[in-house]
Each structure stands twice: as C-alpha cells, then as structure tokens.
Specification:
The chain is α/β, with parallel strands linked by helices and 424 residues long. It is built from 20 helices and nine strands. The chain is 47% helix and 13% strand. It starts with a helix and ends in an 8-residue tail after the last helix.
C-alpha cells in the first residue's frame, strides 16, 4: 500500500496544487495523504465529485481538510482540469439551461434528501434551538450565542412589534419563529418542505403562536391569502434557483402588506457563474444554486427596493467549524447506528463548506427589502450603530453592554411592553 502511494502524479494536478501551496503526500496538515492512486485520474476526470467521493471511501485523508479546500478554491482549482471534465461541466450547464431543477415537485426532494434523516444528527450538531444557518459572531464566543444574536439581528432589522404577523419562509426547526414569538410578541406562520421539520415544530413549539405549513412557497398564497406585516426567509433562497427568482419575489410581494418589510438571509457567490459543485448538488442540496450579487439584484428589481445589504460570510466559517466540533464530539454516541462512511461524509461536507467561506468564494448576505410604495423611511440596524446611538454621550460605551443582550431578556420585556426604542 505505501509503495503505491508514491506513484507518479499527473503534471496537470501538480500544477494546480502548487498554485494552491498544497502537496500530495506532504507533511503539512493541509496536504493530501493519498491511499489509493486511482484518485489521480479520477480527479482529472470528475473534479470535485471525485474529491468528495474519494474522501468518503477513504482514498485520501487530510488533517486540516477545511484549510485544504480554502487553498484550492483561492487558487481557482475547482475549474475543469481535462477535456473530459470540461464536457461533463458543459453537460451540467446545459442541463440547467434546459431543465428547471427547482420545480414544485422537485422542491420536496431536498427535504427528503437532506433534512428528513435521523434527527439526532442535527440535534447533536446544532445549537439547542436547532438553527441550521449562519450565526452572527460579532460579539459571540460560542455557537448558541451567535445563533441568538442572529435571530435578534433579524428581528431588529424587521422592526418587529407585538401583534404583527410574521411569515417565515423555509422555517427549518423554528429557531427564528420561536425567538420572534417569545421575544417580540408576534404571530408566526412558518413553511417548510421537510416533513421531519414540520413534525418537530408541532411537537416542540405548540405552546407558541406559531402555525406550521408543510408546503412550497408557491403553494402558500392558496393556503393563506392574507397579508403579512413582515416576511423572513433564512437559508432558503439558495434552493429557489435563478430561473425562479422572479416567481419567488413576486410571491412574497403579493403576501406582504404595503408598508411591510422582507428580510432575505442567503448564501451568495462572489461571482456570477453557471458552474456548480457536483458533489454538493448530488448529495447535499439537490438543485441548490447560489446567487451572485448581480443575479440577486436582477431578481429583485421592479418588485422590491433594497433598503439594506449586509455581508458576514466569514461568520459561516466559524459556524461550520462549530457544527463540526459538535458532530465530532457526539460521534461516540451516533456511531452505534451509523457507519465510518457516514462520519467521513459529514466531515467532508462541513469542513469543505467551511473552506468555501474562508476562501471568500462564498458570501453570506442579509438584505432588507420593501415595496416601492412604502411610506416610512428605513434606517439600517447594526449592533455597533445601536451602541453609538444609545450610549451616554459622556461615557465610553462597552459593546457587550449596549449591543446584544446575552440572554435576550432585556430586549424581550421592553419590546413586548411597548417601551423599546425604534431601531436605528
């Protein structure tokens, strides 16, 4: 086995890895340790699909997989490396042009493939509120705090008030819905295509004014034709697909009250491209497509105005690394009903995605949108700005005292009692 590892490596592969400062069988933590030389021709032929499948099979290892992926992406190593790979890439692009991978019927496949698995995996990996999206780490030192701060950030940007009606599009396991209902006194309608998520929310959040609909966003107007004061969509727009953007935003526009606000929280691509990662598309998020800033603006134009746009993509690196640490710590319990391949699958998924955001190819955007006819001006909310506007003029403010409350209780009581100042 050890003799086979040191077989000659194709020059085109070493050219790419040299540009990324990565070595095959090197001695640094981000170098690949190849156990099966069949990996080399597979990488030339199938690119990232071979990289992911090869790792899950045990064809190679890497101590610092997240840093490996970061370095490869910064060096643009995710481009096709052979004529055969170029043909496969072209075929995927043509398929996307000819077939809508995000039809109403296909949307439920994402729920079955990725979310409707053993719920213990997500319970072990995520924070106690089961938030499966990027946390906000500006003033957080742990995952739970980062997720709580993310929820408050969204609620403040939406300027939620008691009695408002909030629509949560792609509500997951209800972390935002529960936070908004508990801390801001709003009524929530949450929609998800996942049967597991809908069942979990009905079991755990029945005490809150939250109604769950298991449906696609395109089906909601027929189920609830009324207006919503506010709409949030967190980590769901990536599943919409660019050919459906106008349908998505048009649906939200029909559901939003005239003076309402929409918050869109979405992963984004640093550049406009039709290229996809075939491993992620096959095994993680079938039909998922990341928007570029240009594509997102094109989808919104003429339907909504962009009131605010914030990027905290590097926070997703920290979030994913925290998820991985949780998953790894829980593996001694989970392994009794799982395989070694399942462990390697989740390690590759979480750490490769962390590398994607660290490379800055991946972004994390929050946009606030309004209808063109909205009468009230909108002022962007950030914890630092809130500090500057609320701190005493004569005192040097400490961020932890004036931006986020660690447990959220201060914001809770003031907001529900109607004494919270308007967000700045």
């Amino acid at each position: 086995m050890h003799r086979l590892v040191f077989m000659p490596i194709p020059a085109s592969l070493t050219t790419v890895t040299r540009a990324a400062d990565v070595r095959f069988n090197g001695d640094r933590p981000w170098d690949l340790q190849v156990h099966n030389p069949a990996l080399y021709p597979a990488l030339l032929r199938d690119g990232s699909m071979a990289l992911g499948n090869g790792y899950v099979r045990g064809d190679w290892d890497c101590d610092q997989l997240d840093e490996l992926i970061c370095r490869l992406l910064r060096a643009q190593a995710n481009r096709p490396l052979s004529p055969q790979a170029q043909l496969l890439d072209l075929g995927r692009i043509l398929r996307d042009l000819l077939i809508n991978p995000q039809t109403l019927r296909r949307s439920y496949g994402v729920g079955r493939r990725h979310y409707d698995i053993d719920p213990r995996v997500y319970a072990a990996m995520l924070d106690p509120q089961m938030s499966y999206s990027c946390g906000y780490w500006r003033q957080a030192n742990d995952l739970n705090t980062a997720q709580q701060h993310k929820c408050r950030l969204i609620c403040e940007k939406l300027q939620l008030q008691p009695g408002m009606r909030l629509l949560d599009v792609g509500c997951g396991w209800g972390a935002l819905a529960a936070y908004a209902a508990e801390h801001y006194g709003v009524e929530v309608v949450g929609i998800t295509v996942s049967a597991q998520q809908a069942m979990w929310m009905r079991d755990h959040l029945a005490h809150l004014p939250i109604r769950i609909e298991q449906c696609d966003y395109r089906q909601l107007p027929a189920r609830d034709p009324g207006w919503f004061d506010r709409i949030a969509s967190v980590g769901m727009f990536e599943h919409v697909g660019r050919r459906n953007d106008r349908t998505f935003f048009g649906t939200l526009e029909r559901l939003l009250a005239p003076d309402g606000l929409v918050l869109l929280h979405s992963i984004g691509s640093a550049c406009t491209t039709r290229r996809i990662d075939p491993w992620i598309d096959t095994y993680i998020f079938p039909g998922g497509r990341l928007p570029s800033a240009q594509e997102l603006a094109r989808g919104v134009e003429g339907i909504f105005l962009i009131e605010d746009w914030e990027n905290f993509g590097l926070d997703y690196d920290r979030t994913l690394m925290a998820w991985w640490r949780n998953f790894e710590a829980a593996w001694p319990v989970l392994q009794h009903d799982s395989s070694a391949e399942f462990f390697r699958f989740w390690r590759y998924y979480l750490l490769s995605c962390a590398g994607f955001f660290r490379s800055r190819q991946g972004q994390l955007w929050q946009l606030v949108l309004s209808k063109p006819g909205r009468s009230e001006p909108y002022r962007s909310w950030r914890p630092g700005r809130q500090q500057a506007n609320t701190a005493p003029q004569h005192a040097a403010a400490k961020p932890e005292q004036h931006c986020f409350d660690v447990d959220g209780t201060t914001a809770t009581h003031q907001r529900i009692e109607g004494h919270h100042s308007q967000p700045q």
